[in-house]
Specification:
Layout (H helix, E strand, L loop, with lengths): L2 E2 L3 E7 L2 E11 L2 H6 L3 E9 L14 E5 L15 E11 L14 E11 L8 E4 L3 E3 L3
Antiparallel strand pairs: 1-3, 2-3, 3-6, 4-5, 4-7, 7-8, 7-9
Amino acid sequence: MARIGPIKLTVKITGDTATADVTYNILFSKTDVKKQQAYEEECRLIGDDTNANDPPAAGGDDTLEFMTPMFNKDVTPGASETSARHFTKSFRALDLNEDMNAIPNPDEIRALVTLRPAPPAAGKAVRRESPMVKLKLG
């Protein structure tokens, strides 16, 4: 079963534009390499409301942006057990403003990476989150 290495998330705000950068490694098992096991990969930015001590009015964590393309190809091991991953995307900075009205700033953002074994393989999804990034928006 594949594992996800530590995830690094950086967000740069320039005027009205936010540029998010996410990097991590996928660590394939020897069995994955031998069988060339494919995984469906998803990387998204989420607004953290459950771990940030926000008031109950903030609700749960929300998906803010997807970093992986909509029709992303499955990721498979090559000859190596490690695959380096890097996604960069720019969008409106206010799209990351997940703490509005009575919810206090800063906005808390994390990257969430999920790997699911591609059919016909079976198995549980593997998930890992980046450390939280705090932004003052809005």
